[in-house]
Design goal:
single chain, about 250 residues, alpha/beta, Rossmann fold, nine-stranded mixed sheet, 6 helices
Length: about 250
């Protein structure tokens, strides 16, 4: 079974993000970039399935700037067999990304698609669901455990009420949650080998998908600084402050 893993380039989770002076966007100048942490979990799970003899090939897919080659090389170093980059000069919305990924699925014919449950930059959490809808495949979201058995995949999902166990028919689109696994570090020998693995680059325009944005960003603002708390001696004092100082009751 071939597995397609989607990879997104985002700012490093440890970097402090700033907003442009004109509040038009996030300032990414000289910011360290990395693989989206949830995408890294998806790559790790694909590699584990291959090590278990379930997957025969892992294809890493990135849709975005040309610099995403760096993240694809990391995916190759972790264990992907080859990579495809669909270049776009502008940031693409989840629906457009899903349509482009669906075109790649038509070409590659994978049996399973793995991607992170969300990206840490926009936090939309939409691409997996949209991709499943476009392809007509079964979908499992927020997955913390999975097991492939024949033509079915058994999943444990993290939902508001706890955990949910479901069984899906393959092919399927799976979005990976934080507790699915612990991603490995790419070793130096594998980093060197990754440089020789195939990485194909295409443009988004080649796929015949309408790239016109449907969402317009009006303003980006830095969150308010959290104020310090106050320890009160009684419930009565709390109620009084909520009435007189905060005006919430």
């Amino acid at each position: 079974m071939k597995i397609l893993v989607m990879v997104k380039r985002v700012s490093d989770p440890n970097v402090l993000i700033r907003v442009n002076a004109d509040n038009s966007d996030v300032d990414l100048n000289n910011v360290k970039m990395a693989i989206n942490p949830f995408c890294e979990i998806a790559i790790e799970e694909a590699v584990r399935l291959k090590e278990a003899g379930i997957a025969t090939e892992i294809v890493a897919l990135a849709i975005g700037a040309s610099q995403s080659q760096e993240q694809l090389r990391t995916a190759l170093a972790i264990g992907a067999d080859r990579a495809l980059l669909i270049e776009s000069d502008t940031a693409l919305e989840p629906l457009i990304v899903s349509k482009l990924a669906a075109k790649v699925i038509e070409e590659e014919q994978p049996g399973l698609v793995l991607l992170g449950k969300q990206s840490i930059d926009t936090d939309n959490g939409q691409t997996g669901q949209m991709l499943a809808s476009i392809t007509g495949w079964s979908q499992g979201t927020f997955v913390s455990k999975l097991e492939v058995s024949g033509d079915k995949i058994n999943l444990t999902r993290e939902v508001d009420s706890g955990l949910q166990s479901i069984s899906l028919n393959l092919p399927s689109v799976i979005t990976c949650d934080l507790r699915l696994n612990e991603p490995r570090y790419a070793s130096l020998p594998n980093i060197m080998k990754a440089k020789r693995k195939p990485l194909v680059t295409k443009t988004a325009e080649e796929y015949g998908v309408d790239l016109t944005p449907r969402i317009k960003t009006l303003m980006v603002e830095t969150p308010d600084v959290r104020q310090g708390g106050e320890i009160l001696s009684s419930v009565e004092e709390l109620v009084e402050k909520l009435k007189t100082e905060k005006g919430v009751i």
